[in-house]
Structures are given as C-alpha cells and as structure tokens.
Amino acid sequence: MKKYLVLILLICFLASCVSNKELTYLQGKPSNSKEIKRINNIPYKIQIDDILNITISSNNPKIVDDFQKGNINSNIRSSGGVNGQSNNQGYFSDYSVNNYGNIRIPTLGEINVLGYTELEVRKKIENKIKEEYVNNDQSLFVSVKLSGIRYTIIGEINQPGTNIIYQNRVSIIDAIASSGDITDVGNRKEIEIIRKTTKGTEVFKIDVTDINIFDTEMFYIKPNDIINIKPLPEKSWGTGTTGLQSLSTIISIFTLITSTIILARNL
To answer: Does residue 198 register a pLDDT over 60?
Structure first.
C-alpha cells in the first residue's frame, strides 16, 4: 500500500511542475522558405480613439501658424522639427479621433479619418490645404502617423495594464517584454489577442514558444489590441511552479495522509 502511495505522489510531483519547455520562448528551428514574405503588410486603418501626430511645415511661418493646434503643440512648426514629448503630452497636443471618426484641425475644421490609412489621411489634409488655402506652396510638407501603438495586456503578466510603445510596429514579443514578462504560471502557448475589427470582435491565439511565429499574421499587434495571458493548469492545482515548491507541497500532503492513518489506527 505504501509503495502505491509513494508512486502516486511521485507521479503527481512530476506532473505538477512547470517544465522549461513551457517557459522558453521561440523554440525549434525556423522553417526554410525560398520566398520572402512581408508580414502584416496590410496598412492599418485608423479607428475611433486613435491618437494621430500631425506635422505641418512650410517655409512660410504664417501658413504653419494658421494650422497650428494652440501653443502647446510643439510638433507643428515651420522648421519641421519634432520635439521630444512625455507620455501624456501627446494626448493633449496630438489629434484624438472622436466617436464620429473625425479630428478637428485649426482652420481646416473637422476631417473624417475613420477607416483611412495614414497615407490617405496625409493626402486628404495636403489636398485640402492646397485647394483652399495655398495653391502654389511647394515647400508645404504634411506628415501623419499614429502616436505610438496602444495596447492592453491582462492575465498572467507581471505588469498588467494599458501601455503605449512609440514605434511604427510592435510585435507580441515587444508587448510582453514591455510589460515585465509572463509569470511562471502563464500559458505561453495559447496567448489570446482580442481585436475589434469591422467584422466585430475577433479573438486570435498565438504560441510564443514556437519560433515560427515570425511567419504568422498575428506576430505584430495592432493599436487597441487586448492581450490576454491565460494561466496554466498548475496554477489551479496549487502545487508550485518549481520542483522545490512542488516537493514541499507533496511532502505536506504525504505527512498529512500519514498522520491521519496513524491516528485512525490508534483510535
């Protein structure tokens, strides 16, 4: 009886630990391909609540002043220079897309940008300025880009919350690294990416332990994505993430069972 009990406890011990294979990123060998693929090559289309950084420059300072968003927007100036900004400054100095899909630019008024790419918005602004205000200003330059990639990460992550990474493209690895890494009981093989699209809310799954994620469409996240890190079964079992923790739990259970048997025999 004791032998069977020890065997059962040993099996539980081996099954309860989180293996290195479940904790290691980008395992395996990348697949060989003769074709060069451009991952996520579809241009992003602007959504509600996105924040756009719009730079308008010209050799004529008056033209720039007419389209400048107040005195706090140091990003729009005749020199065309872009000053550094804090994480919160962009919210006040840049252009937030409202619930109707519009942004409001001084002099130009409201411009609908919902569903347009950055390039399409840039051309839209350029054409409106040239057609209605400056017909022959060859020095006019307009730049439109997202003010970073905003995402929310929840679940088994060391630093959950909403983050903004100031890059043109952000991978799932970038998002995880910027949020303090996944905990030891986080499931790296079934990470959920929840995304609002024109078709409604869609849920995608990605395995960051597989090196071939570089070839998947979900490797790069999109603005306003929600990343959900689900827990491993070991968390609900409560046996521990390391061998030492699991061993301590198994010993405690074994001690409890042994004490119960001894007490039952002495009654």
So the answer is: yes
